[in-house]
C-alpha cells in the first residue's frame, strides 16, 4: 500500500492493492447477505432450515462467494474498470460499464438484506408468548437485527450512491473531480468501518443471547426442583 501511495500510476502493485481492498469490501457485503438469508430461512421456515443448514453447506457457500467475488474482480481488471480510489488517479472511461457491478455487488444484496431483516423482525413480533424470558430474547434479537441492518446501510450505501452518481454523470470539470474525490474518500472510510462495527454488533449479539440463555436455564431450574420434590412426596 505504501508503494502504491508513492507510485500513483497504474502499476501491478497498485492493482493488487485495490483488488485486495475490493475483495474485502464485497466479501463483507456477501457474507452479511448470506447471514440475513440464513436468519430468514431459520425463522420463516424452521423445518426446512434443518435440512438446508449444516457446517459443510456453510463452507460450500463461503467458497462459492469467494469464487464469485474474485471472478468479478478479474472481470473488472480485464475491462479496465477503476473507482478512483486511494492509489488510482485515472478515473477511467467505462462509466456505464461499471454500474452493473455496483448493482449486483451492492444494490441487489441491499434489497435482500432489507427484505430478510424486515421479514424476520415481523415474524418475531407476531409470535405469541407469555414467557418473560422469551419476550426478552425476542426483543434483543429484534434490536440486534435492526442494528446490523443500520450498520450495513450506513457503511455501504453512501459509497455506492457516490459511485453511481459519478459513473452516471461523469466527471467533466476539475471541480466535479475534486468533489468526487472528497466524497469517495469520506464514504470509503465509512465503508471500511463496517469491519469494526460488524464485529462489535456480533459480539454483543452473542453476549446478549448467552445471557438470555443463562437466565432461561436458571429460571427453569426452580421448576425442575419443585417437580422433583413433588414426585418425592408422592
Automatic annotation (TrEMBL):
Question: Per the database record, which ranges form the G-protein coupled receptors family 1 profile domain?
Answer: 1-202
Q: Name one GO molecular function term.
A: G protein-coupled receptor activity
Q: Does the keyword Membrane apply?
A: yes
GO (cellular component) term, any one: plasma membrane
Extract the PROSITE patterns matched here: G_PROTEIN_RECEP_F1_1 (PS00237), G_PROTEIN_RECEP_F1_2 (PS50262)
Superkingdom is Eukaryota
Question: Could you confirm whether the keyword Cell division appears in this record?
Answer: no
Query: What GO biological process, any one, is recorded here?
Result: positive regulation of Rho protein signal transduction
Segments crossing the lipid bilayer: 20-37, 58-79, 99-124, 145-163
What the entry lists under PANTHER family is as follows: G-PROTEIN COUPLED RECEPTOR, G-PROTEIN COUPLED RECEPTOR 35
Q: What is this protein called?
A: G-protein coupled receptor 35
The organism is: Microtus ochrogaster (Prairie vole)
